Fold:
Amino acid sequence: MARGVQAGVDSVRDAADRGVRLTGGPLMNGKALEVGTVAAIAIGLLVWPLLTPQVAHFYGSLSAIYALIGLSLVILVGWTGQISLGHAAFVGVGCYFGAKLLNNDVPLVLTVPLIGLIGAAVSLILGIPSLRLRGVYFTIATLAFGAACQQYFFTRPEVRGIAADQVPRADLVGIQTTSDRGLYYAVLVVLAIALVLAYNTRRTDVGRVLFAIRDSEQAAQAMAIKIAPYKIGLFAASAALASIAGLFYGMLFQATPAPEQFSVLQSLFYLAMPVLGGAEALLGALVGGTFLAVGQPLVNMFDVRLFLVTSIALLLTLLSGYDGVTGALKAARKAVADAVRGEPVRYGSFVPHEEVDHTPPRVHATVADSPPPVGSVVRVRIVPGVRS
Structure:
């Protein structure tokens, strides 16, 4: 018996060694492929404006702004399962209040965190009263919040009023934003910082707690996790990112758009970004933001409405069963890797190299001359590897 177990252990070790050697290449090593993909995307984002005409820089800036909005929804929808239909209102808050700060000569490097704090503070007005709301009830609350902002709050003279305000393009730590390419690099810096913070948060205990809350709030409560601070904090962080994106949105158009640009319908478009790109992957925000930014000029070439194309793309994504485009690419990479290296090693079971003697062991016990009383407990010590 002991020899059979030892043979099985040796088999598992050999299989593990073969698995390490097989997965050592760049195609099989998921970590190396992930690092290489991120590096390639970063280089492409930096070099892209240098290789494209000036007319494309506007859509590049718009893609980066939408990616920042998509990131705010990825951490909200994909990490905690909270669906918001009023996120366009936070974008409007950042746009209108950001214009007032920039017009009062507040530096952009200070305006960005201030707008984030303003968006987080506004989110507490909605988040704290809606703390006990879950599922569709929380979604309805955000829907009412977005409609109220569009119809009443944004039309106030002290916020936006009837006439549009001019939004100047201030410099960000030496990056001049007077051109669309300069604004693209400024938004890219903020987006990169937000991605790094989100990536590091996901790897900490806070990230694991957020996913636990998403999967089952009852199970999280049974583990003595206080759900309220995490949900309110993440909702505030999501609103802060959306508000910062609204600041750059106003800088891109150099004017404050009408309140209709931050309607509930626009929130639905924003919500489509993490679904199409991937609700759990940070790179899904980039994919969804690019789709929404470049989708409008592309569909105009075929005289098709963007709402129709987005609806079809959402249906195809949901029917595919993958977590957006990033989920499909991850599944394709895994399929190719398994096909190249053969059947992956199953560590849960093994087949020993040599046959194992399955005969049941025999136990020899020596007792006193007289039989023990009925009900007595006999303790037997079995020594492994000893056979007679």
In short: Residues 227-253 form the longest helix (27 residues). The chain has a mean pLDDT of 81. The chain is about 65% helix and 0% strand. Residues 52-284 form one domain.
